[in-house]
Amino acid sequence: MILETVKSGGISHNSYFLGSGGEAAVIDPRRDVDVYLDLAEGHGMNIRYIFEPDLLIVDAWGVLGTA
Questions:
Q1: Closest CA to 31 of 56, 2, 5, 67
Q2: Overall pTM surpassing 0.90 (yes/no)
Q3: How far is CA 24 from CA 42, 65, 66, in A?
Q4: What pLDDT does residue 60 have?
Q5: Cβ contact 33:8 at 8 Å
Q6: Where are the domains of the chain?
Q7: What is the dihedral sign for C-alpha 36, 39, 42, 45?
Q8: Strand locations in 9-61, DSSP E?
Q9: Residues 21-64 pLDDT 10s
Q10: How many whole angstroms separate alpha carbon 40 and alpha carbon 47?
Q11: What angle do CA 52, 60, 13 make, to 5 degrees?
Q12: What is the DSSP letter of 31?
């Protein structure tokens, strides 16, 4: 099992990459997704789940419209 904390510089935000058995989850992702794709590739995993606890904030940023 892998658990990586992804810290965002300049703001108080942590997200998490959790994986096991070739599958991974991202918890509370930031907008720059390359870090998660790089982690998945580096650990030989596929991102299968994304947990976003702050949908109202994400929608205000316009992320849901670009998905």
A1: 67
A2: no
A3: 12, 24, 22
A4: 53
A5: no
A6: 2-66
A7: negative
A8: 13-20, 23-27, 46-51
A9: 999 999 988 888 899 999 999 999 999 999 987 665 555 555 55
A10: 7
A11: 50
A12: S
- Residue in the block written with tokens 């994400």: 58
pLDDT given at position 41: 97
Q: How many CA atoms lie within 13 A of 44 on its CB side?
A: 4
Name every residue whose Cβ is closer than 8 Å to that of residue 22 and which is 6 or more positions away in sequence. 44, 45, 46
Confidence class for position 8, pLDDT limits 50, 70, 90: confident
Q: Do residues 42 and 53 lie in contact, with contact meaning Cβ atoms separated by under 8 Å?
A: no
Q: Select from 37, 52, 1 the least CA-distant residue to 22.
A: 1
